[in-house]
Amino acid sequence: MELSLRSACILAMLAAFLVVVPALAQQPAAEERSQGQFGDRVRSALGPQAAALDAAALAAVRLSPDYRIGAGDILTVRVRGKVDLHYENRSTPAQAGQESAAPDAYEVMPDGLVHLPLIGAVQAAGSTVAELRKVVTDRLSAYFKHFTVDLSVSKPGIIKVWVSGQVANPGPQALPSTATILEALLRADIQPTGSTRLVRLTRGGKTRVIDVYSIVARGELEANVTLEAGDEIYVPASVDWVSVTGEVCRPGQFEMVPPHQSAHSRCAVSDLINLCLGLLPTAAASNAVIERPISGGEVKAIHIDLTSKDDPELQPGDKLIVPSIADYQPTVRLVGEFKGEGVYQRIPGGALSKSGVYRLAKGETAGDVITRTGGTTPQADLTRATIERRKNGKTEILPLDLDRLLTRQDKSADVALESGDTIVLPALLDKVYVFGQVVQPGGIAYEPDRRLLDYLGRAGGMTTRAKSSVIVVRGSTDRPEILRVNVTAGIRGQRKENPLMQAGDVVFVPERPIADWRDIAQIISTVRLLTLGRF
């Protein structure tokens, strides 16, 4: 499937903007306006990424069916078949000191013509590759039969556009003829004071306003126009801002567009919701608040139901606050080996990915919530589940025997839940974990009747910096059993120093002797992370 030049270039541009987009709407302070920092983040992307964009654009030329050839483009022309033409010279001889071009490469002249041997001047500028290929084929048909013409753009020409306004590098910009307005702004570098929603592009005396933020954040690629020689780009200063915080996809400050310069008649709450890419599933949409500055430094609070048809107009300086539904109804958190179907909220990021927050109905128990959300995974250790409950600033650990509750259907093992509870369900201990001074640290599949030296061997053996005193942590993370083992004695045949291992054991091979309780605490912490699936 062929990829259009425009699409290929746009994809390359968006790849470069991956580090830019998050900055467009995250800074709440006026001096750190998200869109104002557009230029700052772009500046860091200009080095190697700008070169990568050029390379991507060059590669895309060969794939484009709709690219319009322009002055300065280098064309590659080959004729194959019963006649095999090897053109010996370019139409424009290389000047002294210039690198010579390939014998079958031809440059489109400023007047739009390309001069080819035998058939002479051909109008190339403005044609697609397919259109020009047909013209060349028709011309050669007067001389040959049974042949094909291979024609492609091997290198796009250079155009010059003018960029002015709130940019770090104003003035003429030399760009590939495939460049879009986004690439020009990358090179010119929008200043923190510059607008990203009211960029003006003037071509042939006609001016259009382009919303660069929508191109980057919302993927409105049709606005990322391909530039032409002589285009003028003006970046005005940004003036008015509104902000949004809370349960939205992209909280931050956003530039307001005056009604006479926007397709919309006004800047309403719905416009701001669109700019921040919508609400999260956790949003208490009916309890949103607009904070509006008034005289004397005071702030007026205006309550708004985002689920209603009301769509009030915003004023400069307004802040929309979208609270979490967790602030208005009870929730419970599930951590570990739960399936999580019917998820109410997923907690993003973090090493412990198997975690989610769910609505807690009145009177629900642990069994009710687990069943309603899809149950447990096959890897769950039902005998080691617990409930963590915060009370009076302290965390209580309540036992929860899910083997009795779920497997044996013993309802007496169920526990009534309270809002804010966390149910923790570790994975089955089917590994022995070896860390520290070994060649290949990590988890090793547990096998019955295997001893410590067996697992050390499977970990690649101990390094030259390893001490012979090895620590084995076994059992509950709350009350672990600590074994100190002398590996040297175990190698000599003392079976006590080469104990049988159990599933879930953690072996730590230190570089120096274990000094105090802090080292033991660190190892126990590692055990807890392992059993909860963080590794």
Account of the 3D structure:
The strands form 6 sheets. The chain has a 6-stranded mixed β-sheet, with helices on one face. Helix 1 runs antiparallel to helix 3. It has helices spanning 5-16, 38-45, 47-61, 129-140, 181-188, 212-218, 269-275, 366-372, 402-407, 452-458, 487-491, 517-531, and strands at 74-81, 105-107, 113-116, 120-123, 147-155, 158-165, 171-176, 199-203, 206-210, 232-235, 241-246, 252-255, 288-293, 299-304, 319-322, 331-336, 345-346, 355-359, 385-391, 394-400, 422-425, 431-436, 442-445, 469-474, 481-486, 506-509. The protein folds into 5 domains: 5-62 and 158-235, Roll (Outer membrane lipoprotein wza fold like), CATH 3.10.560.10; 74-92 and 101-155, wza like domain (wza like fold, 2-Layer Sandwich); 244-324, Outer membrane lipoprotein wza fold like (Roll), CATH 3.10.560.10; 331-425, Outer membrane lipoprotein wza fold like (Roll); 431-531, Outer membrane lipoprotein wza fold like. It is of the alpha+beta class and 535 residues long. The radius of gyration is 34 Å and the shape is extended.
List the defining traits of the structure above.
535 residues; alpha+beta; Outer membrane lipoprotein wza fold like; wza like fold; 6-stranded mixed sheet; 5-stranded mixed sheet; 26 strands; disordered N terminus
Low-confidence stretches: 1-63, 88-101, 342-353
Mean pLDDT: 76
Count of alpha and pi helical runs: 12
Query: How many strand units?
Result: 26
Stated plainly, the CATH topology of the largest domain is called Outer membrane lipoprotein wza fold like
CATH architecture of the largest domain: Roll
CATH H-level homologous superfamily name of the largest domain: Outer membrane lipoprotein wza domain like
Biggest β-sheet strands, sense, barrel:
6 strands, mixed
Q: Into which percent range does the helicity of residues fall? A: 10-25%
Please, how many domains? 5
CATH class of the largest domain: Alpha Beta
What is the CA–CA distance across the termini?
Answer: 41 Å
Give the class from helix and strand content and strand pairing: alpha+beta
Query: Beta-sheet strand percentage?
Result: 25-35%
Strand order of the largest sheet: 17-18-16-21-19-20
Gyration radius (Cα, Å) is 34 Å
Gross geometry? extended
